[in-house]
């Protein structure tokens, strides 16, 4: 029995000294999956970490991440310093900006909605 049995991680691929070493696929209990290179049980070289919201494509050196790209399920790619979505000045999601889903009415014309006190006045009449 090796350390992978205790960690609830499922690994298929190359091994050396009973550890992931070479190329393989590691599935975590959380549902995330890593496909790529390993060295002495750690991510090494090129790899792709897939998670429910998207994926991280990166390059590792003996477990230390050197480079990365994050791509969300809706194909939006995170670019540090160029992030224009869900900011204090614009609360819309990427799919709303690209018109893949309609913008919520409350974000389009907030003045069209009555506040609670105006609604109560109409109800009592």
Automatic annotation (TrEMBL):
Q: PANTHER family given for it?
A: MORN REPEAT-CONTAINING PROTEIN 5
Main location per UniProt?
other
**Keywords for the protein's UniProt record, in alphabetical order:** Cell projection, Cilium, Flagellum
From the UniProt entry, list the residue stretches annotated as the region Disordered. 105-125
The name this protein goes by in its record: Dynein-like protein
Do the record's keywords include Electron transport? no
Where does this protein come from, organism-wise? Hexamita inflata
Q: Where is the composition biased (Basic and acidic residues)?
A: 106-125
């Amino acid at each position: 029995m090796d350390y992978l049995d205790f960690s609830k991680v499922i690994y298929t691929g190359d091994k050396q000294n009973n550890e992931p070493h070479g190329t393989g696929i590691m599935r975590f209990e959380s549902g995330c999956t890593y496909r790529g290179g390993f060295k002495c049980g750690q991510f090494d070289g090129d790899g792709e970490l897939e998670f429910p919201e998207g994926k991280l494509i990166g390059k590792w050196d003996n477990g230390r991440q050197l480079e990365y790209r994050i791509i969300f399920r809706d194909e939006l790619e995170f670019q540090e310093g160029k992030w224009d979505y869900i900011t204090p000045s614009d609360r819309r999601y990427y799919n709303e900006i690209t018109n893949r889903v309609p913008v919520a009415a409350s974000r389009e014309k907030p003045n069209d909605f009555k506040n609670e006190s105006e609604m109560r006045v109409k109800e009592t009449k």
